[in-house]
Amino acid sequence: MASDIEIARAATLKPLPEIAAALDIPADALEPYGKTKAKLSGDYIATLKDRPRGKLILVTAISPTPAGEGKTTTTVGLGDGLARIGRKVAICLREPSLGPCFGMKGGAAGGGRAQAVPMDDINLHFTGDFHAITAAHNLLAAMLDNHIHWGNELRIDTRRIALRRVLDVNDRALRAVVTGLGGPANGTPREAGFDITVASEVMAILCLASDLEDLQRRLGNIVVGERVDRSLVTARELGADGAMTVLLKDAFQPNLVQTLEHTPTFIHGGPFANIAHGCNSLVATDTALRLADYVVTEAGFGADLGAEKFFDIKCRKGGLSPSAAVLVATVRALKMNGGVEKGDLGVENVAAVERGCANLGRHIDNLKQFGVPLVVAINHFTADTEAELAAVKAFCAERGVEAVLATHWADGGAGTEALARSVAALADSGEADFAPLYDDDLTLVEKIETVARKIYRAGEVDIDKAARAQLERWQEAGHDRLPVCMAKTQYSFSSDPDQLGAPEGHVLKVREVRLSAGAGFVVAICGSIMTMPGLPRHPAALDIRLNEDGEIEGLF
Amino acid sequence: MASDIEIARAATLKPLPEIAAALDIPADALEPYGKTKAKLSGDYIATLKDRPRGKLILVTAISPTPAGEGKTTTTVGLGDGLARIGRKVAICLREPSLGPCFGMKGGAAGGGRAQAVPMDDINLHFTGDFHAITAAHNLLAAMLDNHIHWGNELRIDTRRIALRRVLDVNDRALRAVVTGLGGPANGTPREAGFDITVASEVMAILCLASDLEDLQRRLGNIVVGERVDRSLVTARELGADGAMTVLLKDAFQPNLVQTLEHTPTFIHGGPFANIAHGCNSLVATDTALRLADYVVTEAGFGADLGAEKFFDIKCRKGGLSPSAAVLVATVRALKMNGGVEKGDLGVENVAAVERGCANLGRHIDNLKQFGVPLVVAINHFTADTEAELAAVKAFCAERGVEAVLATHWADGGAGTEALARSVAALADSGEADFAPLYDDDLTLVEKIETVARKIYRAGEVDIDKAARAQLERWQEAGHDRLPVCMAKTQYSFSSDPDQLGAPEGHVLKVREVRLSAGAGFVVAICGSIMTMPGLPRHPAALDIRLNEDGEIEGLF
């Protein structure tokens, strides 16, 4: 089969007003960015707020492995499938980051015949949202150091600055730096560092704010560090919230594109799935729900991280009530969860699939805890055997969950019609009775423990002493009602990436906690979390170039 | 009078296809970015290459003072004036940088009733060009450190790395940093630093490349540092040129907007006027010349820097032949050149104006050396007195140069009709006989000396010994035919910013030289040049915010 970019390039895109018309969006509500990308105007979005919401469908997955699960691809494929069976549907995805695009993994707009297009633009600068976030974040950082330079009236402790800078690039050399060198004209020397833009709290804020006013309020709440007396200093005290909002006013508007099959697709925001909540923007999802009868969206990593945060952070904050979930599994990933090495995936191994189904089962049980009914989507790979597929289906049937084979990668929406019918029936059934996992009024420590015990099945939660003290101080400082955002390896239910399958009774160590007061959550970090990736020995950038026809090669 | 942003906000913009139609640009050649900004497609631009060029008019100025000269404002006003007298005209401007916008000076799209609009968008992210340059530059930097991290096959000397990183923000704390701290997983510790994006060589390259192929060739030529054996390492050797070109492919296309009076305006590129050449992109200027009968453009700083580089770098590289120049002067700036302090500018002082005219006279003489006929435009300020204006006119008349009063700030194009008639007549006269100041085959040292003696009227040129050795090595390495780009204070013909008026016989010290092999010039640095500005005590960002109607306040 052709590569993703070859398929995308060969596609004939429809003019965006036609795509918008499928959702009854008038053409003048579109702010065009080129001919095949647009933002929805804020004025138009404001007119939608009293409309009823359609049904929200979350696509999540088993624990990821190097074999790949295809969550975005399935989200796109399911959207196309729903459109094919005549439903009024919109898809909501996250925006890709330039860093991994030029580093390890290539594009992130789906794959095969289930892609959002124009895939090259989406994977590159798109409509500039991430650049706006970078600019707003770094303006705050510059204003912080500038405040210190001109006398430090706020008495900020330069040893206790929480705010780092951000760039949308994989650059390990920027993880730990010393800034302000070269004498008094260049500011105050201090330890600092850069994260990748998707790890910026500004990104998480953009994805959780309800409108521009709420955006500014949240930006003002960002805690940049501590004073000498240990009290917290906010972006508002630095006077940065207004200018940051101005820089973000266009980025805040959702972007509309289409799939290869012309299904309307909102791609907006892309916060990290570990130190943030890993979902596309609330404003995009809410807008889509006001326009479509069915909205298909995704969350980062496996269901233990992505779905939990989607439910406990995004749905809680946005008052969203999902009607159904789709749990994506692949035979390959189940085999790896069953102990097979990547090199041996090509060999039929039903026993390994059956062992790996323990991981699938755990995710099924977890999703049920939120009151959301689910379907398992088996994302088909060409090497899957009948016996392996039958093993997955049998496992699901035993649990009372339907498992549907989906061939969207090869067949587009034609390969997800069966899945779409099952999902639509489930969403229409009224079976959903969504509730977040824990109440706002549990303590921060209790919230961490609840997720650890109910979702990760930890036997014990070991919160570092300093982190526990920090949590208590935030608890008393009025941040007690915030949800928690767990930063844990995505490869295991435990904090040990090598414990595949469905481990239980393990000790979850919380080493560090961070307050994202603007985004509105407390991050609990279990294990080491990378917020600035590095480039591999042979970065993808080496192979990305324009060919003789001016077309992009090497994005895949 | 209302503020710039109030005037801009009150304006009724025409749909961009109508603006384009004034230059016979078909609507499908436009890639829209919102409703009032667009890029011209590369395919369309390629169709223009055999058309004859219109007449090119450079707007330059006397030596700048804190009083302000209004070069961009006059460029816009003159364009509007030419349109009013029935000429087919296009304006070419540089893109503003976010750094100064949130720092000291506010917007940079003209002022009063002579503005390019939408001024808020132009001053903020516009069409994302600067962000693309930031991304491309920093990808190269990441690939450089990554190469070293994975074994440093090219044997790059980490003590002799020339490439810095860039951000479009005023942030003094980033001028001098140490990167790569925190252990082996984070790369190799070394001294590094950030410049503002406009100072990136990638910016200069984007502004001098003729097409995407030339862009990639030039990007590949960027010298990132030296090997242990002192030989030069290029971006091409790091394999970054292809990916950088992909990141810049949209940014390379010129942007079209309009003035308040709907004159077509290309705003594209904005390299520093000290370590680079300070003009808008060659591709925008060339495109405008193929479409319009008259193209009005500007160059940074005073004529000693801006016009010289425009002629010796941009016109030389692009084969452009300007038909006329407009030298902008203000009574206020002449007074300051005549020794008046800023606080005393409100008082009539004809003698100071007459003394200050020495500066004007020197610039007139200099422009004549290039064979370009000129008009002096007196940019009117309300406090100017009749006697002061008469003094300027009398001075110019003595030199055989017409001086025309222009009131575009208050009156828009109606205030520049007389100027437009004079300029059009001059451009039509065939009087121009343009030639650069020096030939390609002078040595690099001779080129520096030529500019210093003929334009700055230095009595002596003192090139630091190490810099001279460096020039000789580049001379021998095949860079001998490059023009020189002088980085000197803009406030004086000398390298001492306090020597106003028309100093001569001074000693020009060249302290440092830099090779911009991709852009295609050698930078000679005289005095200290700031490539990363800082924020002032009260940055403009503190006052920039959205008002209750969602409109931007504080950009001025």
UniProtKB/TrEMBL annotation, chains A, B:
What InterPro entries would the database entry show? Formate_THF_ligase (IPR000559), Formate_THF_ligase_CS (IPR020628), P-loop_NTPase (IPR027417)
Read off the PROSITE patterns from this record. Answer: FTHFS_1, FTHFS_2
MF term (GO), any: ATP binding
Alphabetically sorted, this entry's keywords are: ATP-binding, Ligase, Nucleotide-binding, One-carbon metabolism
Q: Which domain of life is it from?
A: Bacteria
Keyword Ligase attached: yes
- UniProt keyword Nucleotide-binding, yes or no: yes
* Matching CDD domains: FTHFS
Write out the transmembrane intervals. Answer: none
Q: Where does ATP bind?
A: T65, P66, A67, G68, E69, G70, K71, T72
Which pathway or pathways does this protein act in?
A: One-carbon metabolism; tetrahydrofolate interconversion
Instruction: Give the enzyme's EC designation.
Output: 6.3.4.3
What family is it from?
A: Belongs to the formate--tetrahydrofolate ligase family.
Q: Spell out the protein name for this chain.
A: Formate--tetrahydrofolate ligase
The lineage is: Bacteria, Pseudomonadati, Pseudomonadota, Alphaproteobacteria, Maricaulales
- This protein's gene is called fhs
